[in-house]
Amino acid sequence: MDVMVELRAVTKRFGSFLAVNEVDLQIKAGEFITLLGPSGCGKTTLLRMISGFETPTTGAVLLEGKDVTREPPYRRDVNQVFQSYALFPHMTVQENISFGLRMKKVPRPEMEERVGAAVAMVSLGGMERRKPAQLSGGQRQRVALARAIVCRPKVLLLDEPLSALDAKLRHAMQVELKALQKKLGITFVFVTHDQEEALTMSDRIAVINKGRVEQIGDASQIYHRPKTTFVANFIGQANILRAAVLSRSGERARVQIEGGIELLVNAEHLAPGADSALLSIRPEKIALRKERQAAFESCFEAHVEEELFKGATDQLRLRTDSGLALTAVVANESSGQAALHAGDRVFCHLHPDDIVIVHEA
Ligand SMILES: Nc1ncnc2c1ncn2[C@@H]1O[C@H](COP(=O)(O)OP(=O)(O)OP(=O)(O)O)[C@@H](O)[C@H]1O
Ligand SMILES: [Mg+2]
Fold first, then answer.
1. CA-based radius of gyration for the chain
2. Which residue's CA is the nearest one to ligand 1's atom 29?
3. Which end of the chain is more exposed for a tag (fewer CB within 10 A), N or C?
């Protein structure tokens, strides 16, 4: 594995505040990695230590195996798109985007071609002569993006580069950016607190919580196998339930949640000898039927308490007879499945694979 960026036990303190706490991270060459986490968890601080605008309190930053912890930003082949654009106000769009290439003395025809391609990618054709003050926030963000990409650094750090764009443009740019990253082979370290963006764009996602990497993996691992309650709740929705372990036999274990409901789970994910566990169940994994189905290992009854229309899906609040509240999501108007409404009684079915054992965090 070619490691492009490596963080070794990196810690950053601001006074007594611990912003980044002992982070170990290896980013492969050509990888698209996303740092995902709530506001204030240390994402920007991590990026700034990779680019050199911030120095770790302890630990080391390596680029292609070389320790650059004390090297200034301009000595690193890393470009950063800042959360706050940082465009040159006196320069036009064209001049802003071509700035890095002019510094590198790239020949004029090549420069014009690369700038033209970058302008087209961010859909700013016709605005080349404007100054940043004559642009909207989303347009400025796109100039910042084009300016960084045009230089084709080995590593590009992107701090919420799409946050100011409307949903439609944002989706278009997600596709374009991902395609460009693959084509140019640039290593992307991308910051967002939009979970859907992280899931669709990334080769791997590092979920950050309070300055630590809580879990790292591909989108499917992070979504389907969250390790902690924090990851389960931060990426998508989750029903978190406390359960008592009743018995184990082979690869299955029988557990009991509130109200005496018994479920079958995968025993291998339970700690040996544990008598209790936390379960995470995604709302769309609860199979709701009007009749009891034998194909599922676990089944219990509930009624629909509330129905929320979400467009492609319906979100339902379920209440078991024992009073336990659960959230379920069903596809809207899916064929073969009767529509469910408030007041309806339903059978809730689960497979062991759809129940994930998580740790408290
Ligand atoms: N220069 C600084 N001095 C003191 N505290 C700082 C400094 N920079 C960041 N912090 C604190 O460190 C923590 C992490 O900040 P950081 O900017 O990395 O968060 P973030 O994950 O990027 O958040 P957001 O999603 O809101 O951009 C925050 O609590 C912030 O207040
Ligand atoms: Mg930030």
1. 25
2. 40
3. N
Domain ranges of the chain: 3-230, 237-358
Task: Estimate to the nearest angstrom the gap between the alpha carbon of 186 and the chain centroid.
Answer: 19
For the cut 80, the answer to whether the pLDDT of residue 337 exceeds it is no
Which residue puts its alpha carbon closest to atom 2 of ligand 1? 14
Asked if residue 92 has pLDDT above 60, the reply is: yes
- The CB of 193 under 6 Å from ligand 1? The reply is yes
Residue in 68, 70, 86, 92 with CA at minimum distance from that of residue 158: 86
Torsional class of 90: left (φ above 0), alpha (ψ -120 to 50), beta (otherwise): alpha
Look up tokens 């590009």; give the residue: 156
Nearest CA to ligand 1 atom 14: 42
> pTM of the full predicted structure?
0.89
Q: How many CB atoms lie within 10 A of CB 289?
A: 15
Question: Can you tell me which residue has the tokens 């607190």?
Answer: 193
- Quote the CA–CA distance of 117 and 11 in Å, as a whole number: 39
Q: How far is the CA of 231 from the centre of ligand 1 (A)?
A: 20
Q: Is 154 helix (H, G, I), strand (E, B) or coil?
A: coil
- Write down the CATH number for the domain with range 3-230: 3.40.50.300
For range 188-215, the mean pLDDT: 94
Q: Work out whether strand 32-36 and strand 204-209 pair parallel, antiparallel, or are unpaired.
A: parallel
Residue linked to tokens 């009854």: 301
The encoded tokens of residue 60 equal: 């080391």
The rounded Å distance from CA 344 to ligand 2 centre is 45
Atom of ligand 1 nearest to the CA of 48: 18
CATH architecture of 237-358: Beta Barrel (2.40)
**Nearest ligand to the C-alpha atom of residue 159:** 2
Residue 260 CB–ligand 1 contact under 6 Å: no
Is 39 touching ligand 1 by the criterion CB < 6 Å?
yes
Residue-wise pLDDT for 57-70, tens only, equals 999 999 999 999 99
| Distance between Cα 231 and ligand 2 center (Å) | 19
Q: Which amino acid is at 41?
A: C
